[in-house]
């Protein structure tokens, strides 16, 4: 797989695998996974990994020669003593041209349903979330918890970006949070 001009091009002799991983957090988990990938001729392309509530979880995109994909998948199963690994086939064709990318940032008092409400607005506009990072933290002055979200999403060609922004601003007023939307 090679990245040229912002578009990912897949090598026809390489299989793309998406690995989802979870396990009790401890030293050496990434190394064990990376060793297995490398030992089978694989290349670690991209990942999102994090510790949450004592668990280490994530998703990893790897490429591996077609003839070694099954071998790598089988080799990842013994990692269950350290990590539970699920292997999923990835896309095998060139990525479609990128939609308009938007960055949405939200901050406000934490309460249930914020992610549901924001993702509902995006879904109604046909917007696909590419990346979502959320966290809660102590509010420095007011007490309580603040909820913070940062997401990147693809807005389909022809979709009215102004209407999306207006709907998100309406939602921000209802939820009493600050939302900013920036097209990139």
UniProtKB/TrEMBL annotation:
Segments crossing the lipid bilayer: none
One Pfam family of this chain: ACT_6
GO terms for biological process, alphabetical: regulation of DNA-templated transcription
Residues in ACT domain copies: 103-184
Superkingdom of this protein's organism: Bacteria
Name of this protein: Amino acid-binding ACT protein
Organism (species): Micropruina glycogenica
